[in-house]
Amino acid sequence: MSLQDFTQKPFSSSSEENKHVISEVIQKWLIDSKMVLEIASGTGQHAVHFAENMPFLTWQTSDLVESHSGINLWINESGLTNILPPLSIDVSEDNWPVVTYDAVYSANSFHIMSKQNVTDFFSHISSVLNPTGLVIIYGPFNYNGQFTSPSNANFDIWLKQRNEKSGIKDFEFCHELALNAGLKLAEDIEMPQNNRILIWVKK
Fold it and tell me: Which PANTHER family match (predicted)?
């Protein structure tokens, strides 16, 4: 029996709440995909849920090293063979994979990142995408410099109290970076709790 057997898996209540609605939206976009890279897998809950519900996909997790043990606990308990142990990826460093994927997915990460981190994410993205690859981002966004709800405005204050460089990003800022990376917007989908799913496709 290993030490992991006595370790409690990390748990995110928000991930548990939103995994079903996200899955319903992204599954139709991923139906022709085979390999997906998830940036900032967090607890690993999304990865396990999506891999279970989309068995035609191989789901590659990734995060900073300190999150790997928790992600592996979720993967090991799931018993799934189409989900891979996490890669160590810092979006602002040159440790991105050398292989390419049909899609890159990330949830609730952009508002944790600094603007430089998001810039670096898009500067690397084309190198890991197949010719018609997708970029799927879930989370809150501002439009025309405005919060979409009072709760998002309060959330942004809380984020900045924890880290002044974090905060909800402007859609326009992200979209310009995506365009510069050779991506075009395929869909901007309204989600519950004042969140969005943004989908770009490689031109």
Answer: UPF0585 PROTEIN CG18661
